[in-house]
Design a protein that fits this description.
alpha/beta, Rossmann fold, 43% helix, globular
Amino acid sequence: MRHLLSVFDLSTSDIQEIFSLAESLKGDFRKGVRTPRFAGYVQALLFEKPSLRTRVSFETAFAHLGGTTLYLGSDVGWGNRESPEDFARVLTQYVDIVVCRAKQHRSVEQLAAHAAVPIVNGLTDQSHPCQALTDIFTLYEVHGNRPGLKMAYVGDANNVARSLTVACAHLGIQLSIASPANYQFDRLFLTRLEKSFPTFRPRITTDPCVAVKDADAVYTDVWTSMGQEDEQEDRAKAFAPFQVNARLMEHAPARACFMHCLPARRGEEVTDDVIDGPQSVVVQQASNRMHLQKGLLAWLLQ
């Protein structure tokens, strides 16, 4: 039985297979074909955090595949009314797959350890694998799956940045990351990355202009994620030089697309003229969450 808790869980061939399924299912969708390959299946969305893209894209994707979805919030008592082990064992007797959006990564690990069905990480503090896979899928759509692709990430080395880095390592995409010195990857993550991908080295810098040079995509995310609200003032000061604006985009090639996982705090990490400009692919990126996750669901359940 497969789970997806982190991009580390996948092999390069797994990612390629998921992309192939997603591309095929997206092609069917454009033709108006929605084959109910999972008719009678039930998906559970177990969410501790609010969501637009993750919730709606997974619900819609599974409906297109013929299945139904249960949205499970705090009312089901996960983590407080009974032991996590009992909760996982019982829930996974009723459904065929669980997508979990949790505050802490150990929660999805604990869920998977006792589950009888596949568990998908829909976001944790450490990892956002579905987003990162979608990002690379979108990059391939924009620039083609060709050798030598380069991506620049500007901002907080957060869960999205970690997952994106592992995806780039799998697929041989060059990656530069520009963050303030106190907001870069921790040693534990870098050690695991080096052990898993000995020949991959992301370029880590404190200069956004250096990071975006020669990039095919410039990516950013919010400076303050959910749960970090108490740090907002300090983060705003630290990240102010890392805003993706027209001046920074001038240091990137004209071919570079702009990417953001959304929601964006306009005027903070990105300016309106960039996110709404001709280089922006953020809507295509958001749309592809549904298509990529169809491929993922098919891969997990087939």
